[in-house]
Amino acid sequence: MAGFWGRRKREQEELQAQDDDLARRAEQAIVAADERIRTAGDELAFAAAELGDEMTADFHTALDAVRSHMGEAFQLHQLNHDEIPDTAEELRTRNARIVQLCEWAEDLIDEKSANIADAVARVRNAPEILARVRQDAAELQARVPQAQSAVERLSTRYSDAAMQRVVKSAEEAAQLVTFATHGADVSERRRESGRTREAVLALETATEATRRAAALLDAVDDFEIEALRAEATLAEVVADSRSDLVALPPAQAAPAVAAAAAELQRALDALPATGTRTDPFGDLTRLRAANTALDAAVSAARYRAEHPLPSIDAVQHALDDADRQLGVARGLIEGHRGWIGADARTRLAEAERLRIDVPSLLPAEDTREEALSSARRVAQLASEALQLAQRDIDSSRPDQGWGGGNGWGGGGGRRGSGGGDIVSGVLGGLVIGGLLGDIFD
């Protein structure tokens, strides 16, 4: 008993320590949140003076929401220190709520403060950003003629389908450069007129335009390298495909293999002649797909050669054997309902459920192996159900009975006596029952 009370005392001391820690956290959190709200108000005032009310409206709304919700925290804190006594559970609930509200308030203020800081930095650094945008636009404008020349040169080597991804890149880049320069001018004029939000928006648009123009011009420069790499890979795939067709064993000339080989040959024949405009990307994709399909067909044919497809007669024979074992197990279990446990009945139910799906799997070649496997599984489950049922009946049979004291049915039914299995016991019982019937008749 002393151990029980000692454990209770330790638990109460631990709970009291947790409550004291939570109360200290609530006190510290409400003080820190109050200070953070005050400094956030100062940040908002300075930001509004520099950015304007429109750009700081989101921060202002968030700060108003924080002040509104923190009113609940201050009210809870006041209730903790009034003259009305409170229970430990009430204090714990209030302090947890105070901590939750203060953490939410500080997180929201930090998020909005970071956004305002970024906006202030963009406004303050606007002259440097404008200068960089104009410099980038000038450099990109100088690259446009080179890109146009590259597109014209590549168009003589590659087809229109291959050039589709870069044929308009130089023109689009030139338009984006012009747009970026115009955006920089608009940003500068809006900033001078005090329309800070519009100035920042125009500056961001100009910066994004230069980024997209650079990406388009880089794509033109990279296209030729990518095309040369695709041509080299295409030559390797062509050589590999032709060697696969030559080395194809006649024994594997299954219909699927023959069809895949014919498709691969058509893909090879469709390749453009030397000296014509080509699409190495499209040709590589089509040839690689045909080559992969041939490899898959050959692998399937080899597997089928190593694992012949079972005939319908073989599957039907396995199914007939499963039906016979199901019949024996079902008859034994239904004839001894009170003696059979859940394991045997579960095996039988699973076998019967699996047996229903076998006929639908039998006709198609793709599912015939599954049909054979399912039929064998049905037979296995039925055999397990029969063995479990025999075990349940043997364990339920009394030690003494008619016919010599070795169990019912003349000594053939109890485990370890006579035949030792339930089937012989049942047959023995039937024989004795017939003899007794003849005597009484």
Please give a quick description of this structure.
By secondary structure, the protein is mainly alpha-helical. The chain has helices at 2-51, 57-80, 88-124, 126-155, 160-163, 169-192, 196-246, 255-269, 280-306, 312-335, 342-361, 368-396, 422-440.
What does this structure look like?
- It is a single chain.
- This protein has 441 residues and is an all-alpha fold.
- The chain folds into four domains: 12-124, no CATH class; 237-306, no CATH class; 309-396, no CATH class; 403-441.
- Helices cover 80% and strands 0% of the residues.
- The protein contains 13 helices and no strands.
- The protein has helices at residues 2-51, 57-80, 88-124, 126-155, 160-163, 169-192, 196-246, 255-269, 280-306, 312-335, 342-361, 368-396, 422-440.
- Helix 6 (169-192) packs antiparallel against helix 7.
- The longest helix has 51 residues, at 196-246.
- It is flat, with a radius of gyration of 43 Å.
- The two termini are 77 Å apart.
- Mean pLDDT is 81; it is low at 400-441.
Average pLDDT for all residues: 81
Number of structural domains: 4
Largest sheet: none
How many beta-strand segments? Answer: 0
What radius of gyration results from the CA coordinates?
43 Å
Question: What distinguishing features does this structure have?
Answer:
441 residues, mainly alpha, 80% helix
Topology:
Layout: H1 2-51, H2 57-80, H3 88-124, H4 126-155, H5 160-163, H6 169-192, H7 196-246, H8 255-269, H9 280-306, H10 312-335, H11 342-361, H12 368-396, H13 422-440
